[in-house]
Amino acid sequence: MREIDVEYLKELRKKKILNEKDFRYLRSCFLDTNSNIWEKLFEGDPKVASLYVETFHYFLKNRKNSPITKPRVGEIYKANLLLGYKGEASLIHPVLILEVIGGRALIVPGSSSDSYMLNAYHWITNRRL
Question: What angle do CA 104, 105, 110 make, to 5 degrees?
Answer without folding.
Answer: 145
